[in-house]
């Protein structure tokens, strides 16, 4: 291994190119919006929580590649992705248990109409898709940070 | 089969062989990304845009980035040859597996066959007729996934949750603990 290669391997995947930074800055809000669109609009067109969650997670990956993974992790924090995963799973569970408490079957969204929610099954499905999206986005960002952190550990990591 | 579909199929097979045969791991990861992306295109041709979107986002997008991140931290020696030397025994085992799996091909109905169980099954017809009326959702795939089979989807989410949390615990302990 030559000296320059060793330096690249030590420095990790971050290159700090202004082109990548500018592109990510412009593209990021659109990708984020598209991810939310895929999540919410999964009810009426192709898409859904799993796909939308991955696209939303991609935003964090792009930030990490453009501005440095360490910086992004310090900015977001390591706890937030894990908190999102748990929140999504709990939201999904309580949507199911809530409908049982209201006297219907597990995850029978129509019963939420009794609470005055219009189109209860549609919004119920979209809420569950959002919960799935939270789980997937949290796991994608968490894995990204965890794998990237391994570069610090030197040879043994 | 149109020429476009044929060329995408050729791309899939080529990318799959390249993934297996290329010597450098970096080259293999790039070939694997191309393979995933072309599979995603095939899903769209087969009228399964939901699956195509997943394959493109997860297989071609996230997996490639995670693989690249992983090989960045490994030592990559200078590669003197482009292709791996093919191990004949391993190739024989792989070929046998492909042959065994291909024997199930004849049991499948033709793509778009109107008489196949997929198209005229009672359950399918019930979903197609009642999904919109019962769930207010235009995409029948979502209606089945989140409403009719909501419990299964919750199990899927629970699997993703447990796998992800387990991996994060192990990786973080390796790194920080």
Notes on the structure:
Chain A is an all-alpha fold. Chain A has one domain (3-153). Chain A contains six helices and no strands. Chain A has helices at residues 3-11, 18-41, 49-67, 69-76, 79-101, 120-149. Chain A is elongated and about 55 Å long. Mean pLDDT of chain A is 82; it is low at 1-10 and 153-157. With 177 residues, chain B is an all-alpha fold. Chain B folds into two domains: 1-108, NADH-ubiquinone/plastoquinone oxidoreductase chain 6, subunit NuoJ (Four Helix Bundle (Hemerythrin (Met), subunit A), Up-down Bundle), CATH 1.20.120.1200; 114-177, no CATH class. Helix content of chain B is 75%, strand content 0%. In chain B, α6 (122-135) crosses α7 and α7 crosses α8 (150-176). Chain B is globular and about 60 Å long. The chains are: A mainly alpha (157), B mainly alpha (177). Chains A and B meet through α3, α5 and α6 of A and α3, α7 and α8 of B. Chain B: It is a multi-pass membrane protein. Chain B: One of its GO terms (cellular component) is plasma membrane.
Radius of gyration of chain B: 21 Å
Shape of chain A: elongated
Task: Determine the mean pLDDT of chain A.
Answer: 82
**Beta-strand fraction estimate of chain B:** under 5%
Tally the structural domains of chain A. Answer: 1
Q: Quickly give the structural class of chain B.
A: mainly alpha
Largest interface: A-B, 58 and 48 residues
Range of strand content of chain A: under 5%
Named CATH architecture of the largest domain in chain B: Up-down Bundle
pLDDT < 50 runs, ≥5 residues of chain B: none
C-alpha-based Rg of chain A, rounded: 20 Å
CATH topology of the largest domain in chain B: Four Helix Bundle (Hemerythrin (Met), subunit A)
Subcellular location (chain B): Cell membrane
Keywords (chain B): Cell membrane, Membrane, Transmembrane, Transmembrane helix, Transport
Organism (chain B): Halolamina pelagica
Main location (chain B): membrane
């Amino acid at each position: 291994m030559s000296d320059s290669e060793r330096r690249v391997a030590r420095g990790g995947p971050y290159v700090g190119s202004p082109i990548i930074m500018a592109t990510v800055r412009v593209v990021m809000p659109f990708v984020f919006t598209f991810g939310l669109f895929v999540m919410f609009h999964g009810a009426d067109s192709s898409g859904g929580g799993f796909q939308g969650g991955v696209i939303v997670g991609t935003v964090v990956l792009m930030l990490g590649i453009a501005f440095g993974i360490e910086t992004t992790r310090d900015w977001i924090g390591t706890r937030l992705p894990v908190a999102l995963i748990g929140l999504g799973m709990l939201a999904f569970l309580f949507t199911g248990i809530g409908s049982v408490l209201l006297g219907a079957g597990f995850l029978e969204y129509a019963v939420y109409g009794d609470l005055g929610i219009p189109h209860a099954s549609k919004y119920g499905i979209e809420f569950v898709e959002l919960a799935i999206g939270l789980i997937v986005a949290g796991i994608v960002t968490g894995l990204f940070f965890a794998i990237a952190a391994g570069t610090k550990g030197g040879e043994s990591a | 089969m149109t020429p476009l579909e044929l060329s995408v199929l050729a791309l899939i097979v080529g990318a799959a062989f390249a993934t297996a045969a290329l010597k450098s791991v970096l080259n293999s990861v790039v070939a694997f990304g191309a393979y995933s992306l072309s599979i995603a295109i095939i899903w769209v041709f087969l009228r399964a845009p939901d699956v195509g979107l997943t394959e493109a986002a997860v297989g071609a997008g996230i997996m490639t980035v995670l693989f690249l991140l992983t090989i960045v931290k490994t030592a990559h020696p200078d590669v003197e040859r482009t292709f791996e030397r093919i191990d004949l025994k391993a190739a024989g085992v792989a070929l046998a597996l492909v042959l065994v799996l291909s024997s199930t091909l004849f049991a499948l109905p033709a793509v778009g066959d109107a008489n196949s169980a997929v198209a005229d099954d009672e359950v399918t017809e019930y979903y197609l007729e009642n999904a919109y009326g019962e769930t207010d959702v235009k995409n029948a795939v979502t209606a089945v996934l989140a409403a009719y089979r909501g419990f299964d989807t919750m199990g899927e989410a629970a699997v993703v949750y447990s796998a992800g949390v387990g991996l994060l615990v192990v990786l973080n302990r390796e790194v920080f603990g």
